[in-house]
Automatic annotation (TrEMBL):
It comes from Parageobacillus thermoglucosidasius. InterPro entries: AAA+_ATPase, ABC_transporter-like_ATP-bd, ABC_transporter-like_CS, P-loop_NTPase. Keywords: ATP-binding, Nucleotide-binding. Residues 3-234 form the ABC transporter domain. One of its GO terms (molecular function) is ATP binding. The keyword ATP-binding applies. It comes from the Bacteria. This is Antibiotic ABC transporter ATP-binding protein. PANTHER family: LINEARMYCIN RESISTANCE ATP-BINDING PROTEIN LNRL (PTHR43582).
Length: 311
């Protein structure tokens, strides 16, 4: 494995932000780190990238402790932070030259790399424009470009598509996928969009309240709910007595309501149609459709954390 976190813990005064996290990445993998706000993801990433030391535990890169010798990891690590880290009064090209020199690149090698990155992130035609005039999506793409200047083996991307338009978001996702496939770049990716994780990631860690609460491939994670069905119910009008009746049913494990769409989780062996029709008749509720679905990553996340990913 290229990187491993072993029993990582971080204590801030009275608060334990990260509590005994274990995770690993194999070379060439894209691994997702998911969790609601406050789960400890950013603190974990900060420790892995050597920005802050852990209270206890270790980070190992190619079987060597990063705490004792961070230089080897830092040389091959790229980090795309959640917050835009650019100089807005400089152009895209000037930003890349500045950060390229920070990576100790120079001369024709730096010029070649800047041109290559501008092409990769689709900003060649806007390279001389000031960053302060860029859209959110263009800034995000440039933010990623900065992290790629020194051709990192391993890149950490902390919610790189927050607050941007769908076109820029798709561009970024396709770029990450291409870098992984063509250059075997290893990626640790956090996101608030489950569809991004579905598209990109080979394996997933789900984190909540400072701890890893589930891990595995996408299919392994979904199998957590293999004994349950997700049932989507559309109603003509939402009646509170019907919702209350669903909550009161002991065999229903979760009830969520969004407009006229109600989603419940039930054991597979339950005759859900018979139960729903009886409850609807009892509460004078008109059902327009009932559909049983295969559990999704979002369903598992809700089941494990009690919250949606974007909460």
């Amino acid at each position: 494995m290229i990187l491993e976190a072993v029993e990582l813990t971080k204590q801030f005064k009275q608060m334990k932000a990260v509590n005994g996290v274990n995770l690993f990445l194999e070379k060439g993998e894209i691994v997702g780190l998911l969790g609601p706000n406050g789960a400890g993801k950013s603190t974990t990433i900060s420790m892995i990238s050597t920005l802050i030391p852990p209270t206890s535990g270790d980070v190992r890169f190619n079987n060597e402790s990063v705490l004792k010798n961070p230089t080897k990891l830092r040389k091959v690590l790229g980090v795309v932070p959640q917050e835009i880290a650019l100089y807005t009064d400089l152009s895209a090209k000037e930003n890349l030259y500045f950060f390229g020199r920070m990576y100790r690149l120079s001369g024709s090698g730096l010029r070649k790399k800047v041109d290559e990155i501008l092409e990769l992130i689709g900003l060649t035609e806007r390279q001389n424009d000031l960053v302060k005039h860029f859209s959110g999506g263009m800034k995000r793409r440039l933010n990623i470009g900065v992290a790629l200047l020194h051709e990192p083996e391993f890149i950490i991307m902390d919610e790189p598509t927050v607050g941007i338009d769908p076109q820029s978001r798709n561009y970024i996702l396709e770029t990450v996928k291409r870098l992984n496939q063509e250059k075997q770049m290893t990626v640790l990716y956090t996101s608030h969009y489950m569809e991004e994780v579905e598209f990109l990631c080979d394996r997933i860690y789900i984190m909540d309240k400072g701890s890893i609460i589930a891990s595995g491939t996408k299919e392994e994670i979904k199998n957590i709910l293999s004994s349950e069905n997700t049932v989507q119910i559309k109603v003509e009008r939402v009646h509170e007595p019907f919702i209350d009746a669903l909550h009161a049913e002991p065999i229903i494990n979760r009830v969520t309501v969004q407009d006229r769409l109600i989603t419940i989780l039930t054991p597979k062996e339950v005759n859900v149609f018979n139960m729903l029709f009886k409850l609807a008749e009892k509460t004078n509720t008109v059902l327009t459709s009932v559909e049983i679905q295969t559990p999704t990553l979002e369903d598992v996340f809700l089941h494990l954390t009690g919250r949606a990913l974007r909460d």
